[in-house]
Recover the amino acids of this structure.
């Protein structure tokens, strides 16, 4: 077992795992959810509020932080942790996803990705050396390699090229980081396995990257437009071929049921903008599904968002008050609901850890998902009337 990751327990019915990941800025208990702070901030929340709800690790983004304010400025200001006032671990995505999401503004080449900035059109190039240098400047605890995320759907030949290119870039990233001392002890580089919907390419990507002996591995290229069953199939086609003694991370998703289903497939780490994005639109997570606080039925509802959930929002405010804030366009609505939604996710993975340790994860997660999805169906039925 590598020094940086300890596998504490594996579920006997599912592939769920309970682990512990050591980084320079702290220890992370897995499975874990990472709030997204793309530009050095989790929208609407202060670092103190993020810490209060039990956040263990945040996510930032190489592409965005290099455009604004610039990685060299962040370096000169003492690194991203000091710059944003967060003392815990930080994982930074390399910018490979932006090659997918900003497809009209980029050109993928064998040596990297050339972008036109979405802000002002300024030219930007991200190759293995650039992404490793930028993440070194940021002081990332976990730095992701640059990869090519193929769209969905894509042809086998298109995916084949993306997998081959991503492998070459991953190999270069690790060599560059090693040769230049970019990532000293306590900082880790994670590889990303692509493969779209092609099981054989998923397996090949995972196995060839495993041979390079990275400290951790991610499943990339999921939740890019494909239906949920296909997304879960892709994750399930990848994780069995990743090293069992290294952390596994599925990038950029999902809903609470999706996270529990992916934990059952052997995933340890998750990130997603969903909890804060829907919060800014007045929606909140509950064990019975996502509720829209704009609905008239919450106008005089005295209950908290979730009874007994120990966060500042649920301890102090009613659904009626939160609806009032949403309907009035008050900024405080985004703060309070974002805090609740992120805590809901963090509490969910904490429950998952406890049930993996107790040995009943399989039955617990199925019952939890069934309740949540039944609640969603009931709410949709009410809306349709």
């Amino acid at each position: 077992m590598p020094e940086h990751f300890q596998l504490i327990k594996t579920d006997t019915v599912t592939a769920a795992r309970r682990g512990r990941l050591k980084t320079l800025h702290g220890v992370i208990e897995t499975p874990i959810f990472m709030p997204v702070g793309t530009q050095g901030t989790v929208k609407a929340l202060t670092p103190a509020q993020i810490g209060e709800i039990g956040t263990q690790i945040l996510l930032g983004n190489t592409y965005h932080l290099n455009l604004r304010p610039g990685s060299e400025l962040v370096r000169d200001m003492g690194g991203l942790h000091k710059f944003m006032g967060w003392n815990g671990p930080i994982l930074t995505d390399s910018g490979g996803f932006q090659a997918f999401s900003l497809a009209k503004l980029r050109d993928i080449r064998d040596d990297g990705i050339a972008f036109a900035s979405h802000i002002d059109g300024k030219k930007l190039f991200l190759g293995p050396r650039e992404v490793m240098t930028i993440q070194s400047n940021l002081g990332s605890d976990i730095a992701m390699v640059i990869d090519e995320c193929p769209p969905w759907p894509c042809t086998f030949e298109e995916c084949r090229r993306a997998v081959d290119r991503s492998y070459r870039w991953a190999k270069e990233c690790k060599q560059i980081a090693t040769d230049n001392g970019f990532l000293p002890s306590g900082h880790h580089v994670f590889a990303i396995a692509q493969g779209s919907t092609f099981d054989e390419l998923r397996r090949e990507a995972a196995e060839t990257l495993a041979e390079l002996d990275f400290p951790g591995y991610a499943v990339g290229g999921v939740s890019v437009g494909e239906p949920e069953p296909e997304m879960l199939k892709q994750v399930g086609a990848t994780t069995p071929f990743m090293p069992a003694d290294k952390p596994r991370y599925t990038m950029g998703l999902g809903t609470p049921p999706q996270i529990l289903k992916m934990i059952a497939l052997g995933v340890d780490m998750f990130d997603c903008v969903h909890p804060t994005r829907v919060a800014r639109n007045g929606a909140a997570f509950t064990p019975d599904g996502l509720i829209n606080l704009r609905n008239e039925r919450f106008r005089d509802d005295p209950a908290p968002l979730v009874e007994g959930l120990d966060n500042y929002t649920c301890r102090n405010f009613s659904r009626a008050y939160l609806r009032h804030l949403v309907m009035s366009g008050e900024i405080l609505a985004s703060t309070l609901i974002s805090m609740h939604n992120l805590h809901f996710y963090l509490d969910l993975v904490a429950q998952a850890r406890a049930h993996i340790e107790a040995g009943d994860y399989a039955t617990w997660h199925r019952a939890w998902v069934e309740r949540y999805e039944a609640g969603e169906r009931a709410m949709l039925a009410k809306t349709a009337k």
Notes: The chain is about 45% helix and 20% strand. Residues 5-272 form a domain with the TIM Barrel fold (CATH 3.20.20.105). Residues 331-358 form the longest helix (28 residues). The CA atoms of residues 44 and 335 lie 5 Å apart.
